[in-house]
Amino acid sequence: MRHLIPLLLVAATHAAVAETPAFRHVQHIGGFWANDDTPLVSGFDANGDGRPDLVVPRFQSGSERWPALLFLTQGGGRFVAEELPFWQQQVWTQAMPAYAAGDFNNDGRVDFVFAETSRTLRRILGLGGGRFRNMETITAPESTFNRMTRVAAGQVDGQGATDIVALDGFTGGGTKPTSGLVAYGNTAGTTQSQGRAPTVTNAWRVALADVTATGGAGKAEILTANGAGEFGVTVHEGGTGPRLLPTLRFAPPDAQSPDFGNMPGDIGIGDIDGDGKPDAVVHYSRTGGASYLRLLLNRDTASVFAVDKELPLGSCTAYNASVRVGDYNGDGIADILVNCDDNPFAILFGRSPANCHCELVFDPPAPVASPATQGARGLGLARGDYDGDGRPDIVVVTQQSLEVYVYDAAYDRLFADGFQ
């Protein structure tokens, strides 16, 4: 009988990991339809209380009064939803809105930018305390394409002001865009559509991150991916402006659908191999629906990155995805967080020691759910410290709700003996 107790403990331990690794569900907020294409915007403090907040664009329908909800962090992993009433229904013509946040007028408050139509962006000025007002409409030059697919904000030219990068994708035949709109900011807080930056052809996803010193210090490079399986880095050089570096392939060409056979869902940024340099993870879906992650390691090549291994996601498929690199079990090794169509989200736990100069090993996707969210479709997710304990927590947007998971301190105690 003495020998059965440790065996039962091990079995219970592994069952707990498979069900909810390190996280517990603490809040459900329903009553709205989320937008499939841009499910949420995160990484900002909307009301100046020092806590991270969220915006969830709604699916546009006659029953929705306002096209977006602001979720303010209340502490303890709890949020409260507020409408953003400065929008009027008639001006929201973009069915699948692109969306980003940043401080565009250098006053220390968060502002928003979103795709209002297929050719225009609208900037919203933050007034503090979670209040906002309309500020500026930006018209994309030379734009004859279907719609804005993504918007990102960051310091692209290194001039100390927040710039806006937008992609206008083309889904039909004819000319495909080979560049993205760049609206440069200035210290006065205004922007002007000053041109376009070269990208991979018909770029569908964009991320801004400082991944190389090629364009100079203090600048975010423009990372883009398209449905043909191509990935590129655009640097902004002081004397010559933006330049696209040699591109890479994150997936082989699809003969049946050369333009859309490897549709990217997201570009995640983080130090995957522990060498201190930011790497990239491209989420993409092949024709037929299977989803994968492609690791691109920062090796200071002419393209910045080198193509590394592909990670199949199995049943964790998703056309639109959110990929977040971080340590989600406290072992000091980078893990990968991603949302799923058949479950709110899953974690691929990393198993290779940091900076080991070895093959990177990840566990298969471990789905995370609670009885209330089992089988719910995760449209997108955010990662942040929402309860103030210094650990990463997770927020997932499903089709009709916001679900909040916080890091479970009991996980540290349960696995202190090394079971993981």
Automatic annotation (TrEMBL):
Question: What keywords were assigned to this record?
Answer: Signal
Q: Which domain of life is it from?
A: Bacteria
Record flagged with keyword Nucleus: no
Keyword Electron transport appears in the UniProt entry: no
Which residue spans traverse the membrane?
none
What InterPro entries would the database entry show? FG-GAP (IPR013517), Integrin_alpha_N (IPR028994)
Q: Name one Pfam family in it.
A: FG-GAP_3
Q: Which Gene3D superfamilies match?
A: Integrin alpha, N-terminal
Extent of the signal sequence: 1-18
Put simply, this protein is called VCBS repeat-containing protein
Q: Which organism is it from?
A: Tahibacter soli
